[in-house]
Amino acid sequence: MPPASPVPADPTPLTAHALVRARQRGIDLEALACLLGYGRRHHDHRGAEIVTFDRAALDQVARREPRATWRKAVEASTLYAVLGPDGCVITTGHRWRRVIRDRSLASLRPGRSRRPRDVRFVTQAGFPA
């Protein structure tokens, strides 16, 4: 008997908008179900949740799902889904840019940037020497 799969037979309910977008964008519903079962979830700080594939999720799919399902997941590795607060899929698509995970303003405050600062000698008046 095969192990129980977290990919549900009846996936998370889709809104009409999500179903239309999935059809328009050529998204396979089996790949979407796999994404919802294994994908990494990020809060967007607006009440929704974004689900994406990352390396760990694709590794789990490779270990637990049949090879055909794994191939679909790898082909759809740029797939994302936006879930509403009730868990319903609002929309789906393929991402072409990096997922911004930190939308807080903390990174914009002085001294909190991850980028190295341009360190220059500054005179007392505040002008570069």
Query: What's the Cα radius of gyration?
Result: 21 Å
Query: Which structural category fits the helices and strands?
Result: alpha+beta
Low-confidence stretches: 1-8
The gross shape turns out to be: globular
What helical percentage do the residues reach? 25-40%
Average predicted confidence as pLDDT: 78
Largest sheet, in brief, is: 4 strands, antiparallel
The H-and-E topology, N to C, reads as HHEEHHEE
Number of E strands: 4
With strands numbered from the N-terminus, the spatial order across the biggest sheet is 1-2-3-4
* First-to-last CA distance: 75 Å
Q: How much beta, percentage-wise?
A: 5-15%
Count of DSSP helices? 4
Folded structure, characterized:
With about 130 residues, the chain is of the alpha+beta class. The protein has helices spanning about 15-25, 30-40, 55-65, 65-75; strands at about 40-45, 50, 80-85, 90-95. The chain has a 4-stranded antiparallel β-sheet with strand order 1-2-3-4. Strand 3 and strand 4 form a beta hairpin. The N and C termini lie far apart (about 75 Å).
